[in-house]
Amino acid sequence: MRFRPISAALLIAAGLGAPTRAEPPDVEALLDKANDYVVAYEGTFVGVVAEETYRQQVQTPGGRLGIRGFSGDSNTQRRNLRSDVLLVRAPAGDRWMQFRDVFEVDGKPVRDREERLTKLFLQPSADARRQEEDIAAASARYNIGAVNRTVNLPVLALEVLEPQNRPWFAFRAAKRTRTTVELEYQEVERGRTMIHTNDNQPMLAHGRFTIDMETGRVLASTLATQTRALRAQIDVTYGNDPAVDMLVPRDMHERYVLGDGSTIDGRAAYANFRRYQVKVDERIKR
């Protein structure tokens, strides 16, 4: 299961005529605030690096492990990753991409880390789309389980709230508290979707955001999708971090259920937020 850079895909589709749909006035106002917040957030979050502690577990029936696992009698496999997670400029220069730089696997340092980073960012491919795929693959190279996934990144769901993507989702206000609203969303276009299978079959996304009514700040997100053979869901919660003076992802929980009964669970926690001047995009040759 792969993430398709939604901005590029939707801009291409927009040339064919973007759909228009009227939302209730209160939902429109909330979306306006959330759109403004996400635009500002992505600009502010650039240059912020977080240390990620990421625990993955795969359970398979009958002791059969996934294509990235190890054969054996046990039906459970675990992996612990430590990484730096940051945003980098896409090679095309039109948006930001998340990048997971794994520096430790099950307590052992990653030996080829510097070589890999050099190849990705200092020796870029002439094909911008190919380089984006290489960055996504590098971010996912240590995942375990039978699902080849590149969607397990904490701020991915925020792309739904980018202004240019708003027409491609239907929104509905659900549960409310005194200060927050749960905003449910459903992707409605079946052409080039936000998430797709490895053989480029579209997977419609749906989920919800918990949004502060006054400011439009996103306090939590859920991103889900499914096919006949797979159900996937990623939940993220946000909290204030004084080191960078903004809301940041605090934890991520992902779960995948396959048609054969196999499950993949991942739990990530984020700490040690700090600002770092990322200049990777300036080194990429156009």
Summarize this entry quickly:
This protein is of the alpha+beta class. The chain contains five helices and 14 strands.
Summary keywords:
single chain, 286 residues, alpha+beta, 11-stranded antiparallel β-sheet, 3-stranded antiparallel β-sheet, 14 strands, 20% helix
Please explain how this structure is put together.
An 11-stranded antiparallel beta sheet has the order 5-4-3-2-14-13-12-11-10-7-6, with helices on one face. The longest helix is centred in the N-terminal third of the chain and has 21 residues, at 25-45. The chain has helices spanning 6-14, 25-45, 113-122, 128-140, 280-283; strands at 2-3, 48-59, 76-89, 96-105, 108-109, 169-176, 180-187, 195-196, 202-203, 206-212, 218-226, 230-241, 246-258, 263-275. Helix content is 20%, strand content 40%. It is α+β, with helices and mostly antiparallel strands and 286 residues long. The two termini are 29 Å apart. It has one domain. The model is unreliable at 5-20 and 278-286 (pLDDT under 50). The chain is globular, with a radius of gyration of 19 Å.
